[in-house]
Amino acid sequence: MSSVQIIDPTKDSRWDRFVEDNPLGWICHLSSWQKLIENCFKHIKGYCLVLVDGENKHIQAGLPIYEVKSWLTGNRLVSAPFATLFDPLASSPSQIKLLLEKSIQLSKDLGSSYIEIRTLQTGTDIVDTDFASRVGFKRHFIDLNMSLDNIWKGFHRQSIRHKISKALKDDVLIKIAESEADLKDFYKLHIMTRKRLSLPLQPYKFFNLMWHNFHLSGQLSLLLALKKNIPIAGLIFFMFKKKASAEYLATDYSFLNFNPNHLLYWEAIKIAHEKGFAIFDFGRTSILNKGLMVFKEKWGTKVFDLPTFYYPPEVAENHDLNEAGLKYKAIRMICHSSPKSFQKILGDFIYRQMG
Asked: Taking the mean position of all CA atoms in its chain, how far away is CA 6?
């Protein structure tokens, strides 16, 4: 008989092998992601729910889920914090149901107020459970199983191709980051970007741990756009199995007329294509961010819903979409009005409540 257990993936070698073999496995399922999150955010603790075969002890399905403790937003279980793309790792609705039942029991044991499960491809397998869904995000991606020339032809001529060509004409150069000094250059751009967008600043430790956990293994790449040897924009993207995914973009907006962002995406797409990846993902986008949605669509992307599931089901009805919620608006107002010298302190405080 199979049973659902809780394991520590950082100590159980079966887990990472299972993630590698599972077609839905992603970087954010790996044990190194749990280490990163727990080391950086002390208010978050990971639990790995696995369906184990009773005879050979093989893992058949799994769901990493994290307890997020916050006096501001309430204690909750999230699968998985700070992951733009995520799925329960299961091959059937019955497997998912067993994992979700275990998550409900864990939630009761921990006294969590609700559970949040993010999905990419398994959303239809959760419909007939006690969870209710809300679609607050979209996914945009490019199929790389064609020639670069055909990929290029799929881009909007004026909005994308022309701007890439203009960046090259203006002598914007792309550098593949090789050291933590390059990461620090990216983080300086990230600070400026978060301030301009009135968003809380993620701690440098988050990016530093990400760099050390995934860069040497070839699962993370950082590109910097340079103008006269000055970093003017940067893009971090993940590469795992058959998929590359753009995760973090940072820009000095005083150089925006040189179109560095367009060139960064194009170079990342070319790298992913050259390495034989099947998909280049632009990550998730809030359905309320119409401008970003249009920008990604002009790359010739395919667009799909990213449903999020909640338990109890009434949470889905009352859960504000991030950019429409009062807490989100209040955070943006505080970030907008706070001085730059206060940005790090404010960001550290806010991210101690988030997940």
From this structure: 24
